[in-house]
Amino acid sequence: MPFAEWGDNCDLGIEAFDRDHKRLLALLNKLHHAVEAGHSQEVLARVLAALNIYVNFHFTEEEELFLRTNYPDYEPHRREHRKLTAAVEEIRQDFEKSASDALSQRVLEFLRGWLYDHHIRFDRAFAAYLEANRATLELQDSSASARAAQ
Ligand SMILES: [Fe+2]
Ligand SMILES: [Fe+2]
Q: What single string gives the DSSP state of each residue in 17-52?
């Protein structure tokens, strides 16, 4: 059983976001597996770096769509993104100092918990906003809603 599972209820119906979220869970599973299997520090560093890059990529992608769709809760959502970005960066720095402590089970569970919690509370709220305002948004910006509907 994977460390972080994608359940049917995880789909938001926004293709780009669902793809990113699956990819983030896959990277988290990869990191967990690398820790469990006792892989080298070099392998762990590579996977952690990939997770760090993808988290930033995904948040930027979400925030661009929030702006294009005039999402009213842009700021609080963005603040949550910054918190995770800072947490991942802190883990990465701790890893450089002490690899084994930095990537403990506790840290991985924190990341998994954060991703699920953010997904359910924040990303789902945006999906609901998009769905409720689809008609208006299509009039304002057909490219944004077309992308969002993919
Ligand atoms: Fe997300
Ligand atoms: Fe988000």
A: HHHHHHHHHHHHHHHHHHHHTT--HHHHHHHHHHHH
